[in-house]
Design goal:
The protein is α/β, with parallel strands linked by helices and 187 residues long. The chain is 41% helix and 18% strand. Strands 1, 2, 3, 4, 5 and 6 form a 6-stranded parallel β-sheet that branches. Bound molecules: flavin mononucleotide.
C-alpha cells in the first residue's frame, strides 16, 4: 500500500516565529513513524502564498490535492487562528474534502486550543474530518530548550502517537472511500 501523504502546514508567517520549532518537532515525529510521506507547506513561502486575486497558486493547489491528510501547526492570535493560515485554507476548496485534519497547537495558557476549536468549524464547512486528539503546548517557549528539543518529551510524544494513529486510520479509510466513490458525487 502507498504511504499516506501528509501535508504539514505552518500556521504562522511572523518573522521570528516560534512555529518553526513546533513544525520541526512535528515533522520529526511523523518521520519516526515511517507510515507517512511528508510535504511541508509554509504560507510564508511565496510559492504557497494565495495570490492577490484570491485564486490559489497552481503549485499550492497541487500539493493540497496530493495530500491524503493534513497536520496544521498553529499558534493562537487573540483567541483565534492566524489570518495567513485562514487565507491559505480559503484559497482552496475541494482539495480539503473527505480528508482528515489534525492539529498541533501552541501558545500561552491555552496552548492554542481556542484557535483549534475555531478551525474545527472552518474545516467542517470544507467537508474535512477533524481529528479529536490533538497535541498542544501551553507556555510553549518554556517547554522547548534553545536547541528546539522538548525538555520533557514523553507526554507530548505519547499524545502525538495517538494523534498519528487516528490520523492514519481516517486517512486510509477516506483514501479508499474517495477512490471507490468520488466525494463530489455523493450528494
Ligand atoms: C497578535 C498576537 C496575538 C496573540 N494572542 C495570543 C492569545 O490570544 N493567546 C495566547 O496564548 N497567545 C497569544 N499570543 C502569543 C503567541 O502564542 C506567541 O507569540 C507565539 O509565539 C506566536 O506564534 P509564532 O511565534 O509562531 O507566530 C499572541 C501573539 C501575537 C503576535
Amino acid at each position: 500500500m502507498d504511504k499516506i501523504r501528509v501535508a504539514v502546514i505552518y500556521g504562522s508567517t511572523r518573522p521570528g516565529r516560534f512555529c518553526h520549532t513546533v513544525v520541526r518537532w512535528t515533522v520529526e515525529r511523523l518521520a519516526a513513524s515511517e507510515k507517512f510521506q511528508l510535504d511541508v507547506i509554509d504560507p510564508a513561502d511565496p510559492s504557497a502564498e494565495p495570490s492577490i486575486d484570491e485564486r490559489p497558486s497552481q503549485f499550492l493547489q497541487q500539493r493540497l490535492e496530493q495530500a491524503d491528510a493534513f497536520v496544521i501547526v498553529t499558534p493562537e492570535y487573540n483567541h483565534g487562528y492566524p489570518a495567513p493560515l485562514k487565507a491559505l485554507i480559503d484559497s482552496s476548496g475541494a482539495q480539503w474534502s473527505a480528508k482528515p485534519v489534525a492539529f498541533v497547537s501552541y501558545g500561552g495558557v491555552s496552548g492554542g486550543l481556542r484557535a483549534v476549536e475555531q478551525l474545527r468549524l472552518v474545516f467542517a464547512e470544507l467537508h474535512a474530518v477533524t481529528i479529536r486528539d490533538s497535541v498542544s503546548f501551553p507556555g510553549a517557549w518554556e517547554q522547548f530548550d534553545e536547541s528546539g528539543a522538548l525538555r520533557n518529551p514523553e507526554r507530548s510524544q505519547r499524545g502525538m502517537e495517538t494523534l498519528l494513529a487516528r490520523l492514519n486510520w481516517w486517512a486510509v479509510a477516506l483514501r479508499s472511500a474517495r477512490s471507490t466513490s468520488p466525494y463530489a458525487l455523493s450528494a
